[in-house]
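HOLO CASE FILE
Compound: uridine-diphosphate-N-acetylglucosamine
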Amino acid sequence: MDCLEITGGASLNGKLIVSGAKNAALPILAATILSKNPVAIANLPNVADIRTFLKLLELLGGGYVKENEIFTIDASKIACVVAAYDIVKTMRASILVLGPLLARYGECRVSLPGGCAIGQRPVDLHLKAMEKMGANISIEEGYIHAKAPRGLKGATIVFDKISVTGSENAVMAAALAKGKSEIVNCAKEPEVVQLCETIAKSGVKIDGIGGDAIEIEGTGGEAPNIPPIRVIPDRIEAGTYLCAAAITNGSLTLERVEPRHMTAVTDKLRQMGFAFEFGADTIRILKSAQIRPVEIVTAEYPGFPTDMQAQMMALATQAEGNSAIEERLFENRFMHVGELARMGAKIALRGNTATISGKTKLIGADVMATDLRASSALVLAALAASGKARIHRIYHLDRGYERMEEKLRAIGAQIERKKEPN
Ligand code: UD1
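Model generated. Tokens follow.
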């Protein structure tokens, strides 16, 4: 197992290229199951979750070739419709194969995702959507067994709660259903929008993309041809590196980013005292003489992303005064609080609100990563801390950040990946 060793205190400056968005790439990979032909995908991030999903597609009978940074995925002929526990347990997003397998093959078995560090995270909304389209669902030996031997039927699906992957599953299933579907209270995240646009480009009629309710005219089982696609930039990776510059008093330019997807994060950073220069696909953050405290409430897009909450908490430890962060999407998504405290952060938790007292002097320590974004908060704190910090269990970080230590080192961080001593 690897750990990261960081000697804090260096200011991070220069340029950094943002990778493709993991959360956009995962549903696009799932959608290749719907396609009649192989699908060429550019800007696929080289992170563990994507490698796991490619492996899942292989286990289902698909394959891929990689040429000049373009992955051509052939999941057009699936030999097996079972997503086994061993792979699903390592990545919850495996649930994304449910909609496409069921829609294309009329039956599938997908292991129920297990417990998760950031709360209960049920999949009831996914299942209700499939049932609404006529699927018969049963839970057998820890597996979701979904059947629709005569194909799915278009339906009105009203999500009680906005779900990103739930909406994505519904969209993929509806694309091959017979007749029109309406998805109400659909997630509007840019990653959901890219999936809808990808499917629409294959000839499936989708109205209202990016809105609360979308209408999909299903093909009645006929597989469309998904054209080549370039994955959108990762807004969470971009936000994390903006925080890295901010917490180390640096000025940094992000390249290959989509500034329009970043508004909730850049607005909060601006309130904290940071100025920005925006280009068509660049964002430059400028250093600030003083960091002001902030109030953040997480929400669905276009609100403040829960996936940036932990990173902003690390930054808030360096603000002059008290900040408050309320987590509205997931219970138990404050696992980083205790670890940040080990580096000297003063954070009080009450229910789903954290109050961060600033400014505190952070001191490097041994800390444990608990989930993907919590891990990046620990990296940020370590970059600002005096002395050496060691971050353990960074396999969480590797799930979603491509070459993080290389990218940070290139802009001035003292960071090294080491083997954990046994
Ligand atoms: C996706 C993202 C994740 C992000 C989250 C919220 C991917 C691969 N992952 O996760 O990084 O943190 O959106 O922006 O895109 N819920 C239910 N029943 C369900 C499904 C969800 O109650 O069937 C609840 C969840 O517990 C949570 C809320 O709905 O409280 C939102 O979760 P959801 O949007 O589904 O998250 P994911 O799609 O799993």
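CASE NOTES: Residues 336 and 374 are 5 Å apart (CA to CA). Residues 23, 26, 93, 119, 121-126, 161, 163-166, 191, 306-307, 329-330 surround uridine-diphosphate-N-acetylglucosamine (CB under 6 Å).
CLOSED: yes
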